[in-house]
Amino acid sequence: IRPIRIAPSILSADFSRLGDEVRAIDAGGADYIHVDVMDGHFVPNISFGAVVMKAIRAVTTKPFDVHLMISPADAYLADFAAGGADIITIHAEAGPHLHRSLQAIRALGKKAGVALNPATPVSAIQHVIDDVDLVLVMSVNPGFGGQSFIPEALNKLRQAKALIGARPIDLEVDGGVTAANARAIADAGANVLVAGSSIFAGNDASTYAGRIAAIREA
Ligand code: DX5
Ligand code: ZN
Description:
This protein has helices spanning 18-27, 50-57, 77-82, 98-107, 152-164, 182-187, 197-200, 208-217; strands at 5-8, 33-38, 64-69, 87-91, 111-116, 134-138, 170-174, 192-195. It is of the alpha/beta class and 218 residues long. β7, α6 and β8 form a beta-alpha-beta unit. It is globular. Bound molecules: D-xylitol-5-phosphate and zinc ion (ZN). It comes from Devosia oryziradicis. A divalent metal cation binds at residues 34, 36, 67, 174. One of its GO terms (molecular function) is D-ribulose-phosphate 3-epimerase activity.
């Protein structure tokens, strides 16, 4: 059993006060800082890139869990590595050479993650499972915060957990995670829980510690 990690997604932070928001989730008990990068091409939304990520690197020592929703990703991996990413996750659907891209991340000295969209089967990563440090099961269609958890993701988590077996690989879930469904998610095998809107709603820093604790305790 790997320890449960809570990874608040700064996509739902107040971007006009991004540094303070990151400090607040750090102080509130976040284990990882989940950084959602969107290109308006792989997903129908644009967020921010390595320049913005690098700007907040100095305000926390917590690991940066960088979720690249971009295609192609390869040309940008070095920028995210240099900017302070600790885990770099790419989508299995984002390019034709997933194995090469995962190797490129590890060659940069970073942990390599692979993400699966809701319609992508676990079998898509069967042959690269020994090349990853983290598997990310999307429980919404990527592109936006605040969507509802897709229940089928629980079945996919169980399948991904079976594929991982005894390997030291984190199993992360992203999208629609709340204190109400966190228990079922953990029971299905996930140990890294991303949460955006359920932590940042209202953007009131005084609420963050309680919300992070509520997910963890669930
Ligand atoms: C979705 C992102 C998620 C998102 C999660 O494209 O990858 O990380 O911000 O937000 P919530 O928790 O609000 O679904
Ligand atoms: Zn994400």
